[in-house]
Write a structure and sequence with these properties.
The chain is mainly α. The chain has a domain of 135 residues. Strands 1-2 form a two-stranded antiparallel sheet. A hairpin with a 3-residue loop joins strand 1 and strand 2. The termini are far apart. About 8% of the residues have low confidence.
Length: 330
């Protein structure tokens, strides 16, 4: 009969002192609290605040409708209200996504900042060029033209801030820890997300033209559509923008081809009126402006002519974001 074995002694009660291994040294990034959460919170709150401020202008525009006796002024006001409502809704959605740390928020805000910066840069460049031409013709100083561009310069600071804050590499991991569901932005490069944003930017103006103005659309070569054909043309542009965004959601290379088609449609349609004074005058008259005059194209006409350029820049950036499907092995 074997003698009973001695009970095992826990290291805590043994005569030998336990060997304590020192903890691994803290890394520099672990010793300091991450500021990613603060960036998401403050950035989201700022976007929500901008959306609320933009939405607060809608009642003022609505009350201002009574001071516009002619139909054209009311149409312009309706169009401005619709654009501002879309902008306010977009800012609030992005702000809430950042505030609740949704994993789609950092790439979408980053991409929207790039597109916004492209558009604002184009507006500033077109305004400066038009201001210099107008001042040279009128013999006045260029200071008033530069002063008129201050709102555009201020508007450029917002998207640059969005790019600076939301390009941080720690934000996607932080949001992935808070939002475990797969999102459409996963695995899609920032230029690909910019394609989605450009699709929305194409759709919104087309809807504004359908809802707020008389149906009219310039087509090459220097002709004007009106009535049902113009409605069909603007509906096609809106469908093209929605298809562009849908293709980006599907991570499809068709988004790149749709973006190419969008540039062609915009360059061949409304943009050509921006560089032709008679066509721009005919376009405004067909939209319902009785006081449309021919002559030097206005800044609005110039911006319409340059509108495809931001989309073309995204086209160049997003080509590699949608790789062609690999051929199946034979």
């Amino acid at each position: 009969m074997e003698p009973p074995s001695a009970p095992e002694t826990h290291p805590l009660f043994s005569s030998q002192p336990p060997v304590l291994t020192p903890p691994p040294p803290l890394r520099q990034e672990d010793s300091e609290p991450s500021s990613g959460g603060l960036v998401l919170t403050l950035g989201g709150a700022g976007l929500i605040l901008l959306g609320v401020l933009l939405a607060c202008t809608l009642p003022l525009q609505w009350l201002d409708l009574s001071s516009h006796p002619d139909e054209w002024s009311r149409q312009v006001t309706y169009a401005g209200m619709l654009v501002r409502a879309a902008g306010a809704a977009g800012m609030m959605i992005l702000g809430l996504g950042s505030l609740f740390q949704r994993r789609w928020a950092p790439p979408l805000i980053h991409a929207a900042g790039w597109v916004w910066a492209f558009v604002s840069s184009g507006i500033i460049a077109a305004a400066a060029w038009h201001s210099m031409g107008s001042d040279a013709a009128a013999g006045s100083s260029a200071f008033s033209g530069m002063a008129d561009m201050l709102p555009a310069l201020a508007g450029l600071g917002v998207p640059l801030g969005m790019i600076l804050l939301y390009q941080r590499p720690d934000l996607p991991g932080l949001c992935a820890g808070a939002d475990g569901k797969p999102r459409w932005t996963d695995g899609l490069a920032i230029p690909g997300v910019m394609v989605f944003v450009c699709g929305i930017l194409i759709t919104v103006p087309a809807i504004v033209m359908l809802l707020c103005y008389h149906p009219a659309m310039p087509i090459p070569p220097l002709r004007m559509l009106s009535g049902a054909p113009a409605v069909a043309a603007w509906s096609f542009v809106a469908a093209l923008g929605l298809g562009l965004s849908w293709a980006a959601l599907r991570h499809s290379r068709q988004a790149w081809w749709l973006l190419l088609a969008a540039v062609v449609v915009l360059a061949a349609g409304p943009a050509q009126a921006g560089f032709s004074s008679p066509l721009w005058s005919d376009f405004l008259t067909a939209l319902g402006n009785p006081a449309a005059e021919s002559g030097v194209p206005s800044l609005t006409a110039l911006l319409a002519g340059l509108s495809p350029l931001p989309v073309a820049l995204v086209l160049l950036m997003a080509r590699r974001a949608f790789p062609s499907p690999s051929s199946s092995p034979s």
